[in-house]
Amino acid sequence: MSPLHIKKGSTSHSAYNLRPTFSDVQEKHTLAVIVDNEAGVLARVIGLFSARGYNIESLTVAEVDHASGLSRITVVTTGTPQVIEQIKAQLGRIVPVHDVHDLTVEGPSVERELALLKVAGEGDKRVEALRLADIFRANVVDSTLESFVFEITGTPEKIDAFADLMRPLGLVEVARTGVAALSRGV
User: Fold this and answer.
1) Angle at the Cα of 78 (from 168 to 65), degrees rounded to 5?
2) Rounded to 5 degrees, what are φ and ψ at 41?
């Protein structure tokens, strides 16, 4: 049946139906934003998120090219596909933004995070904390008679799992860097 013979209200798709369909499903996306390393840029990027009610799950920023004066902001955010597209479009319109990459859709990427976890405990709980740290390849970076501070790097899911196991063993405090991410390959 040609597109001209489709009945009104038909669910058939044609070349004339160019409107994209978006889902209501929330998706997590990692965005890499290259910006000028100057005062106020981070505030403008974050302002975009807060003004529109977009959530930021993780945020890291650091200078990546001193000679060119560029910084990289890595933002992990959640939203419907339509919201994610709006975020990317609005980020691209901010003047000091040079480039916006959605690492989630551009192909395979590597994501890592660093966390420090303070665990207080005695006796068997202390021994178990050390055993689990060894399994997760966490390093002891500080030790007292009452507590350990563990350093762990890995995916956010790995850090979440380690923290969950440390809670019943005396987890006192957690500090996390946020996600650093790069696309794989060239």
Assistant:
1) 95
2) -65, -45
pLDDT in tens, 90-138: 999 998 999 999 999 999 999 999 999 999 999 999 999 999 999 999 9
Q: Which of 73, 102, 131 is the last residue of a domain?
A: 102
Domain span including residue 44: 27-102
- CB count within 10 Å of CB 110 equals 11
Which of 77, 102, 127 is at the close of a domain? Answer: 102
DSSP 105-174: TSS-EEEEEEEEEEEE--THHHHHHHHHHHHTTPEEEEE-SSEEEEEEEE-HHHHHHHHHHHHHHHEEEE
Amino acid at 134: D
